[in-house]
From TrEMBL:
InterPro entries: AAA+_ATPase, ABC_Ni/Peptide_Import, ABC_transporter-like_ATP-bd, ABC_transporter-like_CS, Oligopep_ABC_C, P-loop_NTPase. NCBIfam families: oligo_HPY (TIGR01727). It comes from Amphritea balenae. Belongs to the ABC transporter superfamily. PANTHER family: DIPEPTIDE TRANSPORT ATP-BINDING PROTEIN DPPD, OLIGOPEPTIDE TRANSPORT ATP-BINDING PROTEIN APPD. This is ABC-type dipeptide transporter. GO terms for biological process: peptide transport; transmembrane transport. Residues 4-254 form the ABC transporter domain.
Length: 332
């Protein structure tokens, strides 16, 4: 049994104008210690997915279909009390903005101790000792002193380290990290991602990394899921996705990445914008931005096709693959 299994998950928002489907047909599994990336532009539904895994979508959002199985239990059907034993404990979440996790009026130590004592029966002193240990794990210098400081007394990078330490506090099985480094300077971003990778590996923690940044995904994850307008449109080993993306949208994302060491190369932005979830077109949601669209794309949502170790939801995947091979042969 997989550690976490999301089956045919659908999430709706009941708005005044009518129902909006924010997520459709989401299926994936994650094994213990595995690291996966969920990638896409903002508005693709990545964060909604992160929240719905731990049943944290707030009204008017709700899970309208499907299940989220964690060790055989459906999180989507759990009540508040049952969820409390899992959230922050077995599954923890790290957000882009450290201040979403940190309470500005409590010291770092008080927050960590409070969190530990809420989930475990331990003394204040033992909780404090664990807090020190966790701060050491995220390489915070003089952790005892830090415990008595308030969040605003730390730099952005330090604050995010504290958030990671809090995420690890209960020795979770899974960490869901939503754009954990987006608010930080580039150099600190890389350090924090390296740290997360190290900690997940060392503690055998599974990671669901939600990001718009394919560079970050390639640094940290083993498998990648690309989302577009509320659906997963391509999935496979991260290496394959980065080196040989097959869905025209994923290809577009990769072509828009600045290449290390290549100066002056024009970046190709994908034309147009992702449709809002309230007006996702019939058929393939990407078709208005796609150079390969055919008649069928306007009528039918593409199913997944297995191709080169990946699964790709595109009607043209076989043609595109043939074309790519023909080009490769020509170059030879
Ligand atoms: Fe483009 Fe059609 Fe493939 Fe969608 S299904 S990505 S519109 S070719
Ligand atoms: Mg988001």
């Amino acid at each position: 049994m997989a550690l976490l299994e999301v089956n045919n998950l659908e999430v709706c928002f009941g708005l005044r104008k009518g129902e909006v489907k924010a997520l459709r047909n989401i299926d994936f599994k994650i094994e213990r210690g595995e690291r996966i990336g969920i990638v896409g532009e903002s508005g693709a539904g990545k964060s909604v997915l992160g929240f719905s895994i731990i049943n944290l979508i707030s009204q008017p959002g709700y899970v309208s279909q499907g299940e989220v199985m964690f060790e055989g239990q459906n999180l989507a059907k759990m009540n508040h009390q049952q969820l409390r034993s899992i959230r922050g404990n077995r599954i923890s979440m790290i957000f882009q903005d450290p201040m979403m996790t940190l309470n500005p009026v409590l010291t770092i130590g008080d927050q960590m101790v409070e969190c530990l004592m809420e989930h475990r029966t331990i003394s204040k002193q033992d909780a404090r000792n664990i807090a020190v240990q966790k701060l050491q794990q995220v390489y915070i210098p003089s952790p005892e002193t830090r415990l008595d400081q308030y969040p605003h007394e730390l730099s952005g990078g330090m604050r995010q380290r504290v958030v990671i330490a809090i995420g690890l506090l209960m020795d979770p099985d899974i960490i869901i990290a939503d754009e954990p480094t987006t608010a930080l300077d580039v150099t600190i971003q890389a350090e924090i991602m390296e740290l997360m990778l190290e900690l997940c590996e060392r503690n055998n923690v599974a990671l669901i990394l939600i990001t718009h940044d394919l560079g970050v995904v390639s640094q940290v994850t083993q498998r990648t899921f690309v989302m577009y307008a509320g659906r997963i449109i391509e999935q496979g080993p991260t290496k394959e996705i980065i080196n040989d993306a097959q869905h025209p949208y994923t290809q577009g994302l990769i072509n828009a990445l600045p290449q290390m060491g290549v100066r002056g190369k024009r970046l190709h932005q994908i034309r147009g914008a992702m449709p809002s979830l309230q007006s996702v077109p019939v058929g393939c949601a990407f078709r208005e931005r796609c150079d390969y669209a055919i008649e069928n794309c306007s009528h039918n949502v593409p199913d997944f096709t297995e191709s080169g170790g990946c699964k790709v939801a595109c009607h043209m995947v076989a043609e595109l693959k043939r074309e790519e091979q023909a080009v490769k042969l020509e170059i030879k």
